[in-house]
DNA sequence: CATATATCAGATAAATTTTTCTGATTTAAT
DNA sequence: ATTAAATCAGAAAAATTTATCTGATATATG
């Protein structure tokens, strides 16, 4: 099982993180990216299609084509990738699975989870891909 | 999609929370519990079997049988239910899905997520079912 | 213009998770 | 004893998610 994001989303995050460490003039095809993040090529390709539609990633068809970061790494936050792939339900639904969990009708851990959820959102919104670049490089190299 | 726990686990948490608001001398059969937490009877029954094996819930077979909290609500923490059903992988795996994420080989958000993960663990370990009783009652009534 | 190599779109397959079903066993009550 | 009502165990079905395949289209290059 994944932690809080879907597998799709994890792969999307990994792929974008990888792209952010590379010169955005250089294209990487799905095969190359899949190899870098050690994930199945077709799945990576599918996820990159989603991210292409949402404008985070750009693609070029045909020979010597591939994918690239469509925005400057300084402008992209991880939260964008999460929202584009998994949507916002992780940040809205009750952690215990109760329906209609809200301030007016809270579950037993509503406030505590609310705080953690907001901090998680912040964690993904605060730093840009360029802020994370050094750490990302170190991690990618180790894969 | 669920937030961080599986559906099994959500139902387990809800069922145990419900039981903790009731006199532990009284038995509730799967049908009744399912009705209370508004979830499919057979699924509730399956999850209660898991919790019975792990000793959190007790069961009595035969006519007038049913389930009950096997421990005092003052002794049970939500984390026990989570570990019994989903295991500890949520608290161990990399939130970005990278393999071998560790202090020696951290992902770009390793430390930040580590903090949140620990706080989530604490949130589930700190208060007992009896501490949560008032809040639980209020929520259950509203379902 | 022809060819090789990409993405892209959508269908299909496989795997996993969720849900339901069936039958066996247990037990209280008559 | 017999019966009714419950858990329990495991299989089966349905749904969802993950992964793969196929064919169409696009494009750089010779």
Task: Tell me the overall shape of chain A.
Answer: elongated
Low-confidence stretches of chain A: none
In CATH, the homologous superfamily of chain A goes by the name Winged helix-like DNA-binding domain superfamily/Winged helix DNA-binding domain
Quick one: CATH class of chain A?
A: Mainly Alpha
The main sheet of chain A orders its strands as 1-2
Question: What's the architecture of chain A in CATH terms?
Answer: Orthogonal Bundle
Helix content of chain A: 40-55%
Q: What is the rounded Rg of chain A? A: 17 Å
- Give the mean pLDDT of chain A: 94
Return the structural class of chain A: mainly alpha
SSE string of chain A: HHHEEHHH
Distance between the ends of chain A: 20 Å
Strand content of chain A: 5-15%
Number of H- or I-type helical stretches of chain A: 6
What is the count of structural domains of chain A?
1
- By CATH, the topology of chain A is Arc Repressor Mutant, subunit A
Number of strands of chain A: 2
Oligomer: homodimer
Most residues in contact: chain pair: A-B, 44 and 45 residues
């Amino acid at each position: 099982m994944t932690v809080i994001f879907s597998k799709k989303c994890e792969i999307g995050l990994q792929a974008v993180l990888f792209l952010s460490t590379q010169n955005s003039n250089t294209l990487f095809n799905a095969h190359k990216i899949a190899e870098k993040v050690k994930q199945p090529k077709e799945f990576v390709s599918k996820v990159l299609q989603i991210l292409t539609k949402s404008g985070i990633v750009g693609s070029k068809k045909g020979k010597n084509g591939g994918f690239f970061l469509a925005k400057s790494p300084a402008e992209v936050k991880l939260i964008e990738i999460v929202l584009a792939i998994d949507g916002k339900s992780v940040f809205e639904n009750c952690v215990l699975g109760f329906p209609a969990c809200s301030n007016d009708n809270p579950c037993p851990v509503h406030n505590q989870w609310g705080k953690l959820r907001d901090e998680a959102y912040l964690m993904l919104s605060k730093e840009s891909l360029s802020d994370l670049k050094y750490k990302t490089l170190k991690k990618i190299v180790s894969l």
